[in-house]
Design goal:
By secondary structure, this protein is of the alpha+beta class. Helix content is about 55%, strand content about 10%. The chain folds into two domains: about 80 residues, Glutaredoxin (3-Layer(aba) Sandwich), CATH 3.40.30; about 110 residues, Glutathione S-transferase Yfyf (Class Pi), Chain A, domain 2 (Up-down Bundle). The chain is built from eight helices and four strands, in the order E-H-E-E-E-H-H-H-H-H-H-H. The model has no long low-confidence stretch (mean pLDDT about 90).
């Protein structure tokens, strides 16, 4: 299999952490495919019509894209148990969706600051995206701590990757304020070898 990736993509990081945790890293060849919405990565043309990473090329089927699809596939392939059966599965999927919502909002703030011409940037719109992140972190701190402290699953991995990206690009905004339990959980969880091995490079 071939994974089209960028080392700074938080969605790619989710997949990479899963590969580490399920012992599949050696089964995947990494193909660099960095790009932006204004300048799509050439290697993705013909692989993913949305030209987004991650994309997973398989020898026996169409290329998979969207990190949630890829993670579910790889977990099933390894029988990793990161998506539990029964009622618990829906909690895991909801937590992963919440984490991806944090990433969506954080990336929009990043693109607003990096890609939109300086005179056209809309601070109120970026602040509205940050409000989504604040509400999501508050919900995690108030509602989801028992789940985060439970057996390892994809929801936990997704939340850690989301918070890691917020630190990476928007640390000055301070998501930890008022979220002491979440901050303490993250400080412990990010010490896992899979998280340490997939930290994005500066830049």
């Amino acid at each position: 299999m071939k994974l089209y990736y960028s080392p700074t993509s938080p969605y790619v990081r989710k997949v990479m952490v899963l590969l580490h945790e399920t012992g599949q890293l050696d089964d995947v060849e990494l193909i660099g495919a960095s790009g932006t919405p204004l300048d799509p990565a050439d290697p993705l043309l013909g692989k993913n019509p949305l030209t987004k990473v991650p994309a997973l090329e398989r020898p026996d089927g169409p290329t998979l894209f969207d990190s949630r699809v890829i993670c579910a596939f790889l977990d099933a392939r390894a029988q990793g148990g990161l998506y539990p059966d029964g009622i618990a599965r829906w909690d895991t999927l909801t937590l992963e969706a919440l984490a991806d919502g944090i990433l969506d909002a954080a990336l929009l703030i990043t693109y607003e600051g990096r890609l939109r011409p300086e005179g056209m940037q809309w601070d109120s719109w970026a602040d509205a995206q940050w409000s989504k992140i604040e509400r999501a972190c508050a919900a995690l701190n108030q509602r989801w701590m028992a789940h985060l402290a439970g057996p390892l699953d994809m929801g936990q991995i997704a939340v850690a990757c989301a918070l890691g990206y917020v630190d990476f690009r928007h640390d000055a905004r301070g998501w930890r304020k008022g979220n002491d339990a979440l901050a303490a959980w993250y400080a412990d969880f990010e010490s896992r070898p899979s998280l340490q091995a997939t930290r994005p490079p500066e830049g």
